[in-house]
Design brief:
Elements lengths: L11 H19 L9 E6 L2 E7 L15 E4 L17 H10 L5 E5 L2 H8 L9 H5 L4 E4 L11 H8 L4 E4 L3 E6 L2 H24 L8 H17 L2 H17 L1
Helix pairs in contact: 1-8, 2-5, 3-6, 6-8
Length: 249
């Protein structure tokens, strides 16, 4: 993917954000986590706190490029001309989070089969597997109110999320948010792996071996520290982009 800015009157910083966000869309497609043309990944623009980038509705994730990403405001209105429109189903969730949580600069919403299966269960995510332990105490739960179209649900979603970075939309899917695209993608990968293992373990039958609370907390704290205080997520993201590109070629 071209990493040089080629849109007139656009800052290099915005072009780099667009490039990285397009790569994130393509990675989600590469890993098979898409829901055809639905769902969203958004990234808030620096210096434009009320504007964020999101996918054009109707395109496959594999078709997302830095150029065709939409710039919208918190109401979901396009702030720059585009031949594409956005999917209004994403505005309630994404605009709510971007408007209320300024520490979250990238938000990813998915509902893969394992994730949707787990969030349909009353107990939600287990924390007794390697990846689930890393999510211990980091998940907020929001009751299903139907397709997220309506502004009236925004405040309730924000209250459900609280100060956490993972929001389970019960009977639906998840949204993960972090301070960068790389960190959000790594968190999504962790949530996806936790869901996959939980589903497989449940299918095996038999009793799970429980982890102690202090061990779960240690895992969650260590993972949060790695994401927050190191280049770990950047290394992971870049490695996945290289793998994707190599496999495409």
């Amino acid at each position: 993917m071209n990493t040089q800015m080629n849109i007139p009157h656009m800052s290099q910083e915005e072009w780099e954000l667009r490039t990285k966000l397009a790569q994130c869309y393509q990675l989600v497609d590469y890993f098979g986590w898409t829901e055809t043309i639905f769902n969203h990944i958004s990234a808030r623009l620096s210096g434009e706190e009320n504007h964020y980038l999101v996918n054009p509705f109707g395109l496959n994730y594999s078709e997302i490029t830095p150029e065709n990403l939409l710039k919208v405001d918190l109401e979901g209105h396009k702030v720059e001309p585009s031949e594409y429109d956005a999917n209004p189903a994403g505005f309630a969730l994404h605009s709510a989070v971007h408007g209320a949580r300024h520490d979250i600069r990238c938000l990813i919403h998915t509902h893969t089969t394992p994730i949707s299966a787990v969030v349909q269960k009353k107990n939600g995510f287990a924390s007794d597997n390697f990846y689930g332990a890393q999510l211990f105490g980091r998940i907020g739960y929001h009751a299903f109110e139907g397709i997220t179209l309506f502004a009236e649900e925004k405040q309730r979603m924000i209250e459900s999320l609280g100060d956490k970075h993972i929001l389970v939309l019960r009977n639906h899917g998840i949204a993960v948010g972090e301070s960068s695209i790389e960190k959000a993608f790594f968190l999504l990968w962790t949530v996806q792996r936790a869901a996959e293992i939980q589903c497989q373990a449940g299918a095996l039958g038999g009793e799970d071996y429980p982890l102690q609370q202090d061990v779960k907390q240690k895992c969650a704290d260590l993972t949060a520290m790695l994401i927050r205080d190191s280049g770990f997520a950047i290394k992971f993201f870049n490695a996945m982009v290289r793998k994707m590109n190599a496999d495409k070629n």
